[in-house]
Amino acid sequence: MTNSGSSDARDRDTAGRARNARPRDGLGRPLPYGAEGVPRQPEGVLRAPWQTVGEAQALLAAGRPFHAHEVFEDAWKSGPREERPLWRGLAQLAVGLTHAARGNAVGGARLLRRGAGAVEEWAAGRGEDRPYGLDLPGLTRWARELAGRVERGSTPVDARAEAPRLGPAEGTRPGP
């Protein structure tokens, strides 16, 4: 990726699509060009649902919810149409935790509740609350409880300490 340095120039990938090449910190905040950031999640990766859950769980456990959000976003954009609301809701939960960890209590609480509602609505509509080993009822409880604490608190939360467990056996696939 390149940047010409002018204020109206945009970073572009090899195909000419706009891509922000600035390094980012562990919570996805842009750093100055040339600074050392954390490795970025590659965009547009097609993963099996179990791989998405496992990779997102590892990123959440490492205190990198912004990056977990990007993994969920890939599933949301590339997955089957009927699953897109689920993955979008999970991405909202991860970015809600990101905002809460950055100290944005209003945005964090709002996104945590929005994601919880989306996940809950998807589960109710499908009659399925544990797809791909995900614990959707547990995630909605976690998100709403955290949203309340974020609103009452005055400091950013610790993303690693507050990371949810996505399911009882994250990253594992039960059965044959």
Automatic annotation (TrEMBL):
Superkingdom per UniProt: Bacteria
Region Disordered, annotated ranges: 1-41, 150-176
Protein name as catalogued: DUF309 domain-containing protein
InterPro entries documented for this protein: DUF309, TTHA0068_sf
Compositionally biased spans, kind Basic and acidic residues: 8-27
